[in-house]
């Protein structure tokens, strides 16, 4: 696509003035966002708020190929998803950013927007590195939030805005992983050479996993970078648009991978080890295909995406050896 149009101070001055009653001193687009723009707005009295913008120019994900089947694990974005996820999380006592204002198709910005309270404590990822003692308290509280979410059940899977999918979670993940393998094999020679063995391993992990009758509430992509710390040192979930009802093991396969040694306080009871193994393998295939798809476009940190894909290529190949 052509040059992306970014939000400017002039674009947000009226919105911020109406909501906060103050002027805009500075506007900074925060790094890492791939589906929406996240801007820190510095007010003229030194306070800050955060602006979410769901606009085409803020979304780096390429369109899915024609005929690609819909999946509850697909990309999720937009104010509708954000508001539904906020309500669902608050219903179980999980913290999300305070919403100061939201509007669909905001005039000056030409997109759905939300203005939320800023969280000055940074990410849980940085806190784990900087202050393990403070991080331990936040991790324990995050574990309580995940337990409460896992107990929130629905007989159908899907995004919280419309959890009506009657398929079994294992079938959804297996079919999606096969598509990811096919796409990744077209880009990575080592995966192409081992494709048959990878497919056999995937299918063997999925075989014998019995269907379930209900599903728990999961974030969908819960890493330590998607947890912010508030002024009291407490964890707050962000990037919540992908919130869905699904096998809780899908969440914990990813979360265990991302948190590493800091994961144990987050583990919930009743996880199925066979499902965890299957979902971990499928996650690695996803973490080859997705980052390579992003890296093929104009995402700003292309080398980081390639490093993720390279790491998970190694994980896939190690698993079948």
UniProtKB/TrEMBL annotation:
Organism superkingdom: Bacteria
Domain Aminoglycoside phosphotransferase: 27-248
Transmembrane segment boundaries: none
Gene3D superfamilies in the record: 3.90.1200.10
SUPFAM superfamilies: Protein kinase-like (PK-like) (SSF56112)
Name of protein: Phosphotransferase
Organism: Luedemannella flava
């Amino acid at each position: 696509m052509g040059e992306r149009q970014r939000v400017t101070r002039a674009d947000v001055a009226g919105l911020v003035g109406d909501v906060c009653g103050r002027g805009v001193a500075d506007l900074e687009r925060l790094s890492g966002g791939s589906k929406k723009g996240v801007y820190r707005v510095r007010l003229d009295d030194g306070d800050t708020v955060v602006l979410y913008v769901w606009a085409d120019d803020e979304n780096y994900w390429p369109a899915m190929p024609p005929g690609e089947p819909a999946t509850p694990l697909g990309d999720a974005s937009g104010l509708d998803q954000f508001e539904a996820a906020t309500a669902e999380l608050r219903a179980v006592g999980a913290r999300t950013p305070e919403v100061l204002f939201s509007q669909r198709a905001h005039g000056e910005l030409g997109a759905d927007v939300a203005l939320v309270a800023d969280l000055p404590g940074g990410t849980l990822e940085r806190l784990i590195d900087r202050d393990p003692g403070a991080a331990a308290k936040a991790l324990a509280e995050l574990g309580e939030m995940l337990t409460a979410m896992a107990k929130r059940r629905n007989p159908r899977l899907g995004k919280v805005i419309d959890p009506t999918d009657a398929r079994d979670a294992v079938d959804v993940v297996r079919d999606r992983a096969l598509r990811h393998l096919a796409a990744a094999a077209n880009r990575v020679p080592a995966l192409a050479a081992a494709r048959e063995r990878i497919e056999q391993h995937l299918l063997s992990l999925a075989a014998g996993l019995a269907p379930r009758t209900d599903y728990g509430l999961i974030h969908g992509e819960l890493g330590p970078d998607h947890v912010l710390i508030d002024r009291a040192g407490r964890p707050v979930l962000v990037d919540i648009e992908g919130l869905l009802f699904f096998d809780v093991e899908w969440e914990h396969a990813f979360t265990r991978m991302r948190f590493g040694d800091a994961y144990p306080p987050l583990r919930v009871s009743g996880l199925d080890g066979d499902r965890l193994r299957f979902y971990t393998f499928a996650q690695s295939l996803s973490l080859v295909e997705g980052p390579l798809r992003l890296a093929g476009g104009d995402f700003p940190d292309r080398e980081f995406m390639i490093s993720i894909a390279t790491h998970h290529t190694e994980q896939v190949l190690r698993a079948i050896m």
